[in-house]
From TrEMBL:
PANTHER family linked: TESTIS DEVELOPMENT PROTEIN PRTD, TESTIS-EXPRESSED PROTEIN 30
Gene for this chain: Tex30
Organism from which the protein derives: Chloroceryle aenea (American pygmy kingfisher)
Taxonomic lineage: Eukaryota, Metazoa, Chordata, Craniata, Vertebrata
Pfam families according to UniProt: Abhydrolase_11
Protein name listed in UniProt: TEX30 protein
SUPFAM superfamilies (alphabetical): alpha/beta-Hydrolases
Domain KANL3/Tex30 alpha/beta hydrolase-like, residue spans: 27-209
Superkingdom of the organism of origin: Eukaryota
Length: 221
């Protein structure tokens, strides 16, 4: 379902992948610095989640300013929170690369604004860009250290923007429950020599869905 989401005096283009049965939880998904919501990894993940009963909204927000993109995320959260049609109990924010930084920033700001709000259930970071290539002295970890909801990282073990030991070090300092899933030999774009794109996407989708299911079940106990 194509939708336009109010964002200031503009609209964000979005697509909802709606499961056949009514969904209680949703995932909001966005792209990295390049591309848009039709990036193949996002389309694949949205289809997988909807087929397993989780509503997925992916949206496009161009621009390389994290604060601007975090605001866009907040508008999308608000849109789903107020939607009578989908009537969700909660959402997980998810993004690829820069989109995951924007998601982390949005969660940090939303938790500041509304302490008793548990509409945000967790964060999924696909290829989180912890540092610039070859510039590992400056880590982009400030938002991660403030987040309290569960976090899943799915990163390539050969990601030039997320050195393995550095992410594990940041994770050890986080307050939140976190899990890191390493895709063996994958780079920042999640490509692995000798493996097909579909094969890698299936592995990522399975990891994301099983983590979501665990967290939704824990909430419902």
């Amino acid at each position: 379902v194509k939708v336009k989401i109010p964002f200031g005096n503009k609209y964000l283009d979005a697509v909802l992948s709606v499961p056949e049965k009514k969904s209680t939880y949703g995932v909001i998904l966005t792209h990295g610095a390049g591309g848009d919501m039709n990036f193949p990894q996002l389309v694949s993940l949205a289809a997988c989640l909807a087929s397993h009963g989780v509503l997925c909204l992916r949206f496009t927000c161009k621009g390389l300013n994290i604060a601007y993109r975090a605001k866009a995320f907040k508008s999308v959260v608000e849109y789903l929170k107020l939607s009578d049609e989908y009537n969700l109990s909660g959402v997980f924010l998810a993004g690829r690369s820069m989109g995951s930084r924007a998601a982390a920033s949005a969660i940090r700001h939303l938790s500041r604004e509304d302490d008793d709000d548990d509409f945000i259930q967790g964060l999924v970071c696909l290829s989180y860009p912890l540092h610039r290539p070859k510039l590992q002295s400056k880590l982009r970890d400030e938002d991660l250290l403030f987040i309290k909801c569960p976090v899943l990282f799915v990163s390539g073990s050969a990601d030039e923007m997320c050195e393995k030991q550095l992410l594990e070090g940041v994770a050890s300092k986080m307050k939140a429950h976190k899990k890191i899933c390493w895709i063996d030999k994958a780079n920042h774009g999640m490509a692995v020599k000798g493996r097909t794109t579909d094969d890698i996407m299936e592995e990522i989708n399975a990891q994301v869905f099983s983590w979501l299911r665990e967290n939704i079940e824990l909430k419902n106990k």
